[in-house]
Amino acid sequence: MIYETKQFDKKAIKNFHLFNQSEIEGALSFVDATGTGVHITINDSNFTFWPIETAFRGKRKFYQWAIPGDSIVKRAYSDVLILYKDERTYQYSFRKNED
User: Which of 64, 58, 98, 59 is nearest to 83 (CA)?
Assistant: First the structure.
């Protein structure tokens, strides 16, 4: 069980670094969530991240709010992911999984 936890932590760190260093811009083609984070596909690239949810959207989580066709922008090494939905803009910060 300790081994599995360490492997999960390593994968989370690897996923975070990929997401963090990537310049992401375009329409979402896939959005889902599991216990390991929110999984998105954009421009045929897959990313996993952990959004920090806020109360202003009520009880809806990012993966419940964002749908395929919505657009996102995240600059490389930025602390913010921007979701464009129904001509409105929503900003999300996300948990950082670092070494």
Answer: 64
